[in-house]
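Hi R.,

Here's the input for the S-adenosylmethionine complex you asked about:
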Amino acid sequence: MAGKLYLCATPIGNLGDVSARCLEVFNAVSLIAAEDTRRTLQLLNHFEISKPLTSYHEHNKKEKGGYIISLLKDGKDVALVSDAGTPAISDPGEDLVKLCIENDIEVTSIPGAVAGINALILSGLNTRRFAFEGFLSVNKRHRREHLESVKNDPHTLIFYEAPHKLKNTISDMQKIFGGDRKIALARELTKVHEEVIRLTLDEAAAYYEINNPRGEYVIVVDGAKETENEAENQWENVSVKEHVDRFIAEGMTQKDAIKKAAEARGVPKREVYNEYHKED
Ligand code: SAM
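And here is the predicted structure with S-adenosylmethionine in place:
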């Protein structure tokens, strides 16, 4: 029988966040494939676990992927660990999962921290609907194209960023999204120097003129607000139910959402209420 791949989430800073199940899996598998073997070794040493480790990262994922699949086919269980947080989120784990599926190998997950989700819930921005955008390209043109492509997205946007690129990214966001757009910058989550600052893009640009970015960052950006005109045209093709649900997703109560939808459509509240509560 083939082995199983365990996607093991590890702490994003605080070792106390490792789950009991994750440690059980580490003890049980034949091999741990780690994006950063040195970092994973520290974790294993801390919990006095001794297990064969192999590297699996962006630059060796082709060869190592084949090797890991051969072990799994041989009946060995393997744990996959990202440098921090949940494997397959902004790391090559996604390729190994696809490879396992192509090879009929079972994959399961041991849940834990995801930096982007922790930043989102601390941001104070809308959490009901969001889009994970991962890393922006280091290439200036691609970075700007990426930002342009999400400029009008109403979802809260989540980006990962390295400290040395943060100022340029903030400056591009300020130009493309506009200086009034709200953002939250979450850094060093779960660590001693954890900090979340909530500003507009104009304020953030001024802040980083004076302060140097330090540590690992997640940038959470408020979704685009519709202009009156756009909203008017947009509702023509949106059902009443969808219209009300969108306002609820932005954080409104059902009552307020019905009132706002009625105003936007230029119809009485009762009409929207009846349509919204109509049986499908
Ligand atoms: N797989 C990880 C996850 O589940 O979030 C993310 C890996 S990605 C290669 C690394 C990026 O995650 C960092 O550049 C940073 O943007 C973000 N990150 C990781 N740990 C963080 C922390 N403690 N505080 C803030 N951001 C963090």
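One thing worth noting: Strands lie at 4-8, 31-34, 53-55, 78-81, 106-110, 130-135, 156-161, 182-187, 195-200, 217-221.

Cheers,
M.
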